[in-house]
Write a structure and sequence with these properties.
Elements lengths: L9 H26 L16 H8 L2 H14 L3 H9 L6 H23 L9 H32 L5 H13 L16
Length: 191
């Protein structure tokens, strides 16, 4: 996808808006898949011990284990790309971006698992949180640094480097008059 940039940053706003819309659509799909009641004859017990569910999946054989573990990795993996896209920052530390995105993915996965405690037919599995978080991290590492580098190169080659927009905003914020310091009227202590 080629993004043309204008000096006023409209393309950055459109890119960010697209990220927000895609993020909301993905979250609605995830909510529907994970928090809808299921009509099942029986459910397994909740798994609260890390890696027990993954070991049980591996005991089922190669294809079934790959399918179940893959589902856990893929469910929230798009968040690894959509969260930074919705943030719309091009000039950010790669490690800070990864940490923020993985933390948000882990929190969302935890919230889904907690929400499943009250949904008939859904079973809480701590391994889902682990797999979802790893999926978010992998998607972020594979896509976001390369995409940001490509967009930054496009900014320099296009209508100019948009990094000045952040610097100008910061400069305006720093130079803006702050006004007078508010004063609080003192009330004497009654005898």
């Amino acid at each position: 996808m080629h993004v043309r940039h204008s000096p006023d940053g409209r393309s950055v706003i459109r890119f960010r808006a697209a990220g927000v819309v895609l993020l909301l659509a993905h979250l609605l799909l995830v909510g529907w898949l994970t928090l809808r009641p299921l009509d099942v004859p029986w459910v397994t017990a909740a798994n609260l011990r890390p890696f027990d569910g993954i070991r049980a999946d591996l005991a089922l054989g190669g294809f079934e284990a790959a399918r179940r573990i893959g589902e856990g990795l893929v469910l929230l993996a798009p968040l690894g790309v959509l969260l930074p896209m919705a943030g719309g920052r091009l000039l950010v530390s790669p490690w800070a971006s990864l940490a923020r995105t993985v933390a948000a993915g882990a929190l969302l996965s935890s919230a889904i698992e907690l929400g499943q405690t009250g949904v008939p037919g859904q079973v809480v599995d701590v391994d889902s949180i682990l797999l979802n978080t790893v999926g978010v991290a992998l998607a972020h590492l594979l896509v976001v640094p390369v995409s940001r580098a490509r967009l930054r190169r496009g900014n320099r080659a296009g209508a100019g480097d948009l990094s000045h927009l952040g610097h100008e905003t910061r400069a305006l914020r720093d130079e803006a008059p702050q006004g007078t310091t508010p004063t609080i009227s003192r009330v004497g202590i009654a005898p």
